[in-house]
Amino acid sequence: MRTRIVVATAFAVTVAAGVGVGMWASADDSGPAGSALRPSDGRSAASSPASRAKAPTPTPTRSYPLSRAPRTIPAVRSHTAARGPGWRPAGGHRVVVDDAELVDEGRLIAGELGLAYAGGKTDVRAGDVRLALNDDEGADPESYTMTVRGGRVTISGPADAGVFYGTRTLKQEVHGGGTAPEGVVRDEPAKPVRGLMLDIARKHFTAAWIEDRVRELGDLKFNQLGLHFSDDQGFRIESDSHPEIVSRDRLTKAEVRRIVDLAASRHITVVPEIDSPGHLGAVIAAHPDLQLRNVQGVPTRGAIDISKDESAAIVDDLLEEYAELFPGSQWHLGGDEYQALVVSDPEASYPQLAAAAREAYGSDAGVADLTTGWLNDRADTIRAQGRTMRAWNDGFFRDASVKAAGDLRVAYWTGKEIGARLPVEYLSTGRKLINYNDEFLYYVLGEPLTFVYPTGQRIYEQWTPLVVRGTQPVPAKYDPQILGGSFAVWCDLANSQTQNQVAAGIRMPLRATVQKLWDRGRPDLSWAQFKALADRLG
To answer: Which ranges constitute the DSSP H helices of 49-102?
Structure first.
């Protein structure tokens, strides 16, 4: 009885409002006009008692308004609206895959949504979520299409990464009992590098906390996690080749392998960094004979003496050891803030470095040449492991006759270094660049010097990948050379925040950063709407 009352009321309201496409419509709308209503003797059906007795009662059927685009972070790039109920998870629904390469993605989304994972199936059932690889040759491997139609969902892409991102969109859409809207999503990132870098050298973060960040990054469609694990304050991963340098609070190799495996399951590459020839204080503490000293014999903070063969040997030992632990395609060589180069006359202050430079590169060579040569030699070590490398922009020197290896990507973080160069100076030579702009993307614990904690709102409203240094964008013609960006957490004053405070502090900046890396255009949502969406999604 309740159902009939609701139907009648809905029908009456629709008719009274004069709505053409309303909540309910007659079941015989699709038949030939008047074919069931005109008896053979020419009388109207309404005037025939027999006809009235035999006429079927119209069964109301649902007619839906056009669907709205999904609300996700980052926002989807394209949605084709359609009419229909959409999809939401329910008991008895299953996840099926068309290719064995998608087993991990299928099991993950099934577990997250409380669905049955059915594996490779060709039959079609109501409520199915089907994951498939397509043959879209040449398409971005991180792209995907998600179709919600007929009570089912199909997510397809040219590679498993794209299909995974489609499952992230679905997960967000149905968060908290929501519905994935009817229609077709076509989505892909604007930038191939979308990262978070963690300084785990100055501050020890637990493996569990890092794993939580990996899950968070995966759901937000980030694809890189940088681990800066060696610095003056600590060396934070267990070592077999040089256990004497490792800090008491550190990650075991078993913990790192679990982090790397978890990241891989979320299509996140872990990018390790052993910074050299500066920021090696933890190594030097165990090998004081390798510390750089000036002409008066005063030790130079964090700097290793690159005129000594033993210095290269220990760093190469570490690079080769950790290449096995981090099998991903990317490596960060550091190269920044070598203190021998911040004095007014490096050659006079460090005669041993000047002599080594002349011996290696000729009579006109200086300390900057020797430092660039050091970076190139470490690049040779990592290149042999098949990695793509990056180095901080202040590791590239304008006046050096020795040039940094051509395949090094520029991790551009600052314009404050001695001999600072504008980003265009790198880009105009054809180098590829990753944006770490310290004006927007640096979360430095304790806010030392001129640093302030970045806000999601400022990133969301003012930053784009073209804004590499300060607040001014580089010319748009260089956009293809800017591979993306990375938000960075630096722990200069390590005890200023707990790791849980760090997680809370970077929550909205991360979401704003990935929105601008996924779609470089102006967001459709205001900051207030974006923040409300983030709060709803959790």
So the answer is: 49-54
pLDDT digits (tens, 9 = 90+) for 295-340: 999 999 999 999 999 999 999 999 999 999 999 999 999 999 999 9
Distance between alpha carbon 52 and the CA centroid of its chain, in Å?
A: 65
* 386, two tokens: 């098949």
Contact 180, 127 (CB under 8 A): no
- Separation of alpha carbons 486 and 416, rounded Å: 19
Residue type, 233: Q
Cross-strand pairs, 185: 79, 146
Q: 485-512, pLDDT tens digit by residue?
A: 999 999 999 999 999 999 999 999 999 9
Q: Say how far apart CA 111 and CA 350 lie, in whole Å.
A: 60
Strands 61-62 and 24-25: antiparallel
Burial label for 255, CB within 10 Å (0-12, 13-18, 19+), is: middle
Ranges of beta strands (E only) in 441-505 are 442-444, 482-490
**Residues 254, 314: contact at Cβ < 8 Å?**
no
Mean pLDDT of 281-294: 98
- Which tokens is 29 given? 């709308």
**Pair type for strands 269-276 and 193-199:** unpaired
- Which residue shows structure tokens 């004006």? 439
